[in-house]
Write a structure and sequence with these properties.
alpha+beta; 24% strand
């Protein structure tokens, strides 16, 4: 299970770049400038966009180093690609032994367990065996065998873990467990980055990690940050991309717009279903707005895995979390939304509404 690389465009509408500083049109806070910083982490590009006074540039330059160091620290804890990461250390830990873990890892595991229960196992960070199997299938252009899928499923399931919130320990109940935090880790890191920026007095900030964006207070003279949402078909004309305006919120998109492969005429997503052990074959994308990027990232992945009807119902039962779901029906994009999803500020594509469950 991996969060999609479907891009949410940071919309002033200027592209994110490494130029620092960028000047904005004069506002009431005329001495403020927009600064942009970028570094690669977690297999993507993290972008910081910060409004600050001109005299704060030295302070901000030091702060951005601290922010990116924090993201790097979280990558070292969460990445299944780094052999010595904390999550891989846990995978190698003996069965039946309580393993102390960092506060960050315990928090993300606890949040993942809640979502695993709420989605009846659709969202599952213990699906590493299935995901590794699917990665090999994509590389070899060959579907996993039924026996391979069965053996991978045996090692998958959050019920193979026991979390102790008092001692901050994790106990494995199954040998051969593997973990994949791709559907929540970038959102968690974006939240951590924004927390440092706001805590240092830069509340007019935005942090973007591919399809996960979290924003603080609005830019000077604006109601909020305008975010463009790409759907299932890549749109090169930015003027046609619908946008939403957010303040002190997060938004994430999960889809297979860029990451997929075709085998024997079937298009498989990089997003792996825990129910089939294969990449999704139905074209679906979900954008979720939530109070934090940890929530928007994980819930966007969960909605995509649950599917159109169940995913919408799942979000309708949540407070302060809204979603937009895009699917392909007879080669046409169809958009459905929960009641509280921010209204688009651009002309949308053709829409159809599912009946309320």
């Amino acid at each position: 299970m991996k969060n999609a690389a479907a891009l949410l465009l940071i919309s002033l509408f200027t592209a994110c770049s490494a130029k620092e500083p960028e000047t904005a049109a004069p506002q009431k806070e005329s001495a403020m400038k927009l600064y942009t910083f970028q570094e690669p982490h977690m297999g993507t590009l993290f972008t910081l966009r910060v409004w600050a006074q001109e005299g704060q540039v030295d302070e901000l330059t030091l702060l951005k180093k601290k922010v990116f160091a924090r993201i790097g620290e979280l990558n070292q804890a969460f990445s299944d690609y780094l052999p010595e990461s904390e999550i891989n250390d846990l995978a190698r830990a003996p069965v039946g032994t309580p393993i102390p873990v960092s506060d960050d890892l315990f928090r993300i595991l606890a949040e993942s367990e809640k979502l695993w229960k709420a989605t009846d196992g659709a969202f599952d960070i213990t699906a590493g065996p299935l995901i590794r199997l699917w990665r090999r299938a994509k590389k070899n252009q060959e579907l996993p065998t039924p026996d391979q899928l069965t053996r991978a499923r045996i090692r998958t399931g959050f019920d193979h873990l026991a979390l102790d919130p008092v001692q901050k320990t994790v106990t494995k109940r199954m040998e051969g467990m593997l973990f994949d935090l791709g559907g929540i880790a970038k959102g968690y890191a974006a939240d951590a980055a924004l927390e440092l920026l706001v805590g240092a007095g830069f509340s007019r900030s935005l942090v973007a990690a591919s399809g996960d964006i979290v924003v603080g207070d609005p830019p000077p003279g604006k109601e909020g940050w305008r975010i463009g949402i790409e759907t299932l078909e890549l749109e090169t004309d930015y003027k046609k991309i619908p946008t939403v305006t957010l303040t002190n919120q997060a938004i994430s998109t999960s889809a297979d717009t860029r990451r997929y492969f075709v085998l024997d005429g079937v298009r498989y997503s990089h997003i792996v279903s825990t129910r089939t052990g294969l990449g999704l074959t139905e074209r679906i994308g979900a954008s979720v707005v939530a109070p934090t990027a940890t929530q928007s990232d994980s819930h966007a992945t969960a909605v995509t895995l649950l599917g159109e009807k169940d995913g919408l119902q799942f979000i309708r039962n949540k407070r302060e979390i809204e979603c937009q779901i895009v699917s392909l029906r007879e080669e046409n994009e169809v958009v459905i939304r929960s009641d509280g999803f921010p209204q688009s500020q651009e002309k949308d594509k053709e829409k159809a509404a599912l009946p309320a469950p």
